């Protein structure tokens, strides 16, 4: 029964996080559509985490006896997470998804590079953990996958969504680096508390960036679509999604839960097609396969150690 529970939650999380890319696109709107957040993508991201951060803080107060960080290491973790995992990742992702040439599936596939980049950064920041030849090949394959997916035109690199896809790649880099640095600090406080305060700190930073680049709440027309997008991203994808993630992280471990990044693009493609009429290109599919191959090379030893346990669990 536990096996089916974990599988069900895993698929639920992949579906929830995959559909989030569609929700971002729907909330952002399209050029000439005054009903979305198209003119204010960073503000959109900030509002998402205003709501999600308050909800997660409430849960941290309920579930832990350590709802407020204390000490240098804990606050350093919050600052790093706020800057890189929340503000850097989401600001770049939301701005990148404003380009109509970037489908929900394409954005999800680029973000699925995060585990590959995380492994690369982990090797870089841990001198005792050197990168093997196959590991370096895996990292290179992941980067090649992004290039294939971006399908840049050498004669006009500023067209066809290339810049937007590079922004989303930057988002994946920011998230991966933030994940490694927060683990290196290794502050001993509840994950719920860390997530709540990094969400709130990231939201604050994104509000500052939003004002700095000239975005204004006056430019937002609240519609049913934009309200549904904010509600889904804040409550379902962030608050509920992270609670499921924490549960599975404890039950499955980091190797298996990383695979969510490779199932989510399937749901991003399905929801993008169903709600927005988006169709994945052949470059999206090939890019995904190449990125996943890079992940398998980088994580080959960990996956080899995990296989006997997975077989026992499925028997």
UniProtKB/TrEMBL annotation:
Top-rank taxon: Archaea
Subcellular location: Membrane
Residue ranges of the TM segments: 46-63, 75-95, 101-126, 133-151, 163-182, 194-214, 226-245, 257-276, 282-298
Swiss-Prot/TrEMBL keywords: Membrane, Transmembrane, Transmembrane helix
Record's keyword annotation contains Transferase: no
GO CC aspect terms: membrane
Residues covered by the EamA domain: 9-150, 166-298
Topological relation to the membrane, as annotated: Multi-pass membrane protein
The keyword Membrane belongs to this UniProt entry's keyword annotation: yes
InterPro entries for the chain: AA-Vitamin_Transporters, EamA_dom, EmrE-like
Name of the molecule in the record: Permease of the drug/metabolite transporter (DMT) superfamily
Originating organism: Halogeometricum rufum
């Amino acid at each position: 029964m536990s096996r089916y529970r974990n599988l069900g939650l895993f698929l639920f999380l992949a579906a929830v996080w995959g559909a989030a890319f569609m929700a971002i696109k729907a909330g952002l709107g399209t050029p000439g559509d005054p009903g979305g957040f198209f003119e204010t993508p960073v503000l959109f991201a900030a509002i998402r985490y205003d709501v999600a951060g308050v909800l997660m803080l409430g849960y941290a107060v309920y579930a832990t006896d350590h709802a407020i960080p204390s000490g240098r290491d804990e606050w350093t973790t919050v600052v790093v997470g706020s800057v890189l995992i929340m503000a850097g990742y989401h600001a770049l992702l939301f701005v990148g998804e404003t380009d109509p040439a970037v489908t929900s599936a394409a954005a999800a596939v680029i973000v699925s590079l995060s585990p590959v980049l995380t492994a690369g950064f982990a090797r870089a920041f841990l001198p005792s953990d050197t990168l093997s030849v196959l590991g370096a090949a895996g990292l290179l394959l992941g980067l090649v996958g992004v290039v294939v997916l971006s399908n840049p035109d050498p004669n006009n690199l500023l067209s066809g969504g290339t810049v937007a896809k590079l922004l989303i790649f930057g988002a994946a880099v920011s998230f991966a680096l933030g994940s490694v640095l927060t683990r290196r600090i290794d502050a001993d406080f509840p994950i719920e508390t860390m997530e709540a305060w990094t969400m709130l700190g990231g939201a604050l930073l994104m509000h500052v960036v939003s004002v700095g680049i000239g975005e204004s709440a006056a430019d937002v027309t609240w519609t049913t679509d934009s309200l549904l997008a904010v509600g889904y991203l804040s409550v379902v994808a962030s608050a509920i999604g992270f609670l499921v993630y924490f549960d599975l992280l404890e039950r499955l471990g980091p190797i298996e839960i990383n695979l969510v990044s490779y199932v989510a693009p399937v749901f991003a493609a399905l929801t993008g097609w169903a709600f927005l009429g988006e169709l994945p290109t052949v470059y999206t599919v090939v890019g995904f396969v190449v990125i996943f191959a890079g992940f398998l090379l980088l994580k080959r030893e960990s996956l080899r150690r995990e296989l006997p346990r997975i077989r026992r669990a499925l028997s």
